[in-house]
Amino acid sequence: MYSIIVKTKLKPGKTDEFLAAMLPNAEASVRDESGCHTFDVLQDKADPELFWLYEIYQDEAALADHKLTPHYKASRAVVTDLIAEQSVIRADVLAVNPKR
Predict the structure, then answer these.
(1) Is the pLDDT of residue 99 over 80?
(2) pLDDT at 66 over 90
(3) In whole angstroms, what is the distance from residue 74 CA to residue 32 CA?
(4) Is pLDDT at 96 greater than 90 in this prediction?
(5) Does the structure show a pLDDT above 90 at 100?
(6) CA nearest 39: which of 49, 24, 50, 21?
(7) 77, 4 in Cβ contact below 8 A?
(8) Distance from C-alpha of 20 to C-alpha of 3, rounded to nearest angstrom
(9) Distance (Å, whole) CA 5 – CA 74
(10) Distance (Å, rounded) from C-alpha 16 to C-alpha 21?
(11) Strand, helix or coil at 1?
């Protein structure tokens, strides 16, 4: 399996707009994409404008397919202008919680 961890620092005052677009994307990704196993949205406790997206896909092709979905495209159309900084960690998944 394949994972990305996306660190997203928002522009000031953009948290509500970000969540309004990102939460439906995360939900649809897991619900509608057979290759998306996990899409968690985390908000930093110390900095509420800092978010982490933790996503697990079957493989890199499943992530590529994710970026073609209507829910991804709709989300990106909104969130791109809200982002101050963003970085991505790409990793192979070696173990997951079997109860998930």
Answers:
(1) no
(2) yes
(3) 15
(4) no
(5) no
(6) 24
(7) no
(8) 23
(9) 20
(10) 9
(11) coil
Q: Do residues 25 and 19 make contact, with C-beta atoms less than 8 angstroms apart?
A: no
Token pair in block for residue 89 = 């960690």
Tokens standing for 34? 């057979």
pLDDT in tens, 5-56: 999 999 999 999 999 999 999 999 999 999 999 999 999 999 999 999 999 9
Give exposure, 9-40, as e/b (b: 16+ Cβ within 10 Å): ebeeebbeebbebbeebbebbeeebebbbbbe
Alpha carbon separation from 62 to 9, 10, 34 (Å, rounded): 25, 27, 8
- Note whether 26 and 41 are within 8 A (CB): yes
pLDDT beyond 80 at 98: no
Residue 17, token pair as written in the block: 């707009």
- Per-residue pLDDT, averaged over 60-66, amounts to 96
